[in-house]
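User: Structure please.
Assistant: Input sequence and predicted structure:
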Amino acid sequence: MIHPSPTTPVAIDTARGTLEEVVAPTATKPGYIVVSFPNTSYQTHLIPTGPVKAEVGKRIVGVVRGSTRRVDSVQTGGRYVEPVFGRPRRVQGTVVATDGRANTITVNAGFPLVCEIGDHRQRAEDFEVGEMVTFDMPEAARFEERGK
């Protein structure tokens, strides 16, 4: 249960967290934000898709997007994102939505991630809502901020 509990319904792909830090770009790395999520220890590094309107230490709402390598079904284990601190590299969670047109699956791994299937032999329709999956994320995840 998210604490405090949300009082308004949100889209299944919407992630709610706290903006911990905004890191400026350098000559070799893009800028990113650090977001923590309720009831987790995650300090997730995400590349914003536009200017960040939220203030550090305040709630931030948006969609976490990324791409996968091969997606595999698993029978055991829980939901997680590795590493706990840094950009998501390994994800395991439950499929909560699929989009055949965009070839994406939305996975609940402590927070929702919308992921484009990267293996050309797989399609979003290959996965069912409720199925537990695991995959690698070869690139940094992006964050598209939405209004509160």
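The mean pLDDT is 93.
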